[in-house]
Prior knowledge:
The protein is α+β, with helices and mostly antiparallel strands. It folds into two domains: 6-201, Fructose-1,6-Bisphosphatase, subunit A, domain 1 (Fructose-1,6-Bisphosphatase, Chain A, domain 1, 2-Layer Sandwich), CATH 3.30.540.10; 212-343, 3-Layer(aba) Sandwich (D-Maltodextrin-Binding Protein, domain 2), CATH 3.40.190.80. It is built from nine helices and 17 strands. It has an eight-stranded mixed sheet with strand order 4-3-5-6-7-8-9-10, with helices on both faces. Strands 12-11-13-17-15 form a five-stranded mixed sheet, with helices on both faces. α1 (6-15) packs antiparallel against α2 and α2 (21-43) runs antiparallel to α3 (70-83). The longest helix has 23 residues, at 21-43. It starts with 5 loop residues before the first helix and ends with a helix. 48% of the residues are buried. The structure holds 1,6-di-O-phosphono-beta-D-fructofuranose and magnesium ion (MG) (2 copies).
Amino acid sequence: MSNVSLTRHLLEEQRAGHISADLRLLIEVVARACKTISIAVGKGALGGVLGEAGTPGAASMNIQGEAQKKLDVIANDVLLEANAWGGHLAGLASEEMDHSMPIADLSPDGYPSGNYLLLFDPLDGSSNIDVNISVGTIFSVLRCPEGVAVPGDEHFLQPGTDQVAAGYCTYGPNTTLVLTVGHGTHAFTLDREVGSFMLTTHGMRIPEETKEFAVNMSNQRHWQPPMQRYIGDLLLGKEGPRGKDFNMRWVASMVADVHRILTRGGIFSYPLDAKCADKGGKLRLMYEANPMSLLVEQAGGAASTGRMRMLEVQPSGLHQRVPVFLGSKLEVEAAVRYHLDHDAG
Ligand SMILES: O=P(O)(O)OC[C@H]1O[C@](O)(COP(=O)(O)O)[C@@H](O)[C@@H]1O
Ligand SMILES: [Mg+2]
Ligand SMILES: [Mg+2]
């Protein structure tokens, strides 16, 4: 077992010139918030954290029009509270908040504003909270544009290539933080007795090829023709054009599905379908697709919308949705080929 804590790892990244002291602090604050969320998730029914937020018959809704779970709200509050003292942050944005929040509004006591913007999905996999299946937190860090002291939504609309850090924490049988600052993707497991994240995988690598795909098959009839054809060919197995049998896994928590892919390979997809076409997709670009795409690319994988590299999408809205294909490089390239061939007629 490694004796490298997250703190030591971040100090080494700072000494190597990969991150500033402020960014190190910011990541430590997010990691501390994740520990608090992990404790709340772990208490389950005993902590009164299961079920819907709001009052019976009047569930509270977020900007996405989704009913909020108690833990969505708790996790969001934990992240806000942890970051309220500012210093390192200029503003933050969350799946659960209609608009971004400048740190000046969050911290009226007058802490100085910093240089970074933090975006997060405080609780990913909400439908799994009440059934004791892994959920998580996803986050992305951008630089606040020069000369902007009080950032608005428009300042967050930077492509994924501009992320200076990205990560997620899974709350499952163990609590694992997976992080990149653009120099590899590394995993830290929470030592619950000591209370520290310890480095457990340095330099995660996704195998280029895979025989495992992750998709919500119940949407099949709503998919567009290239997706129908792609998955159809996977299902034909050895006898089909792909020449091998594929296995399927779908946790319905993006963090857990991506964690499996970072650990042993695979392809994860949430394509455009007739149900979500008007919104542009199901998953959110800024705090789901982009951070996961950076982590996957840094581990040797690929991430695409099916038609272009995810990290190069120019965002047009804080809560913008996109189709997602990510994971083993050659398999993502295969999925993209089905889309491009279709478009080319
Ligand atoms: O219920 P579906 O359609 O399978 O969708 C599952 C997907 O939705 C999500 O739960 C969306 O995230 P939130 O729980 O943060 O809204 C992903 O984690 C997951 O991949
Ligand atoms: Mg999510
Ligand atoms: Mg969420």
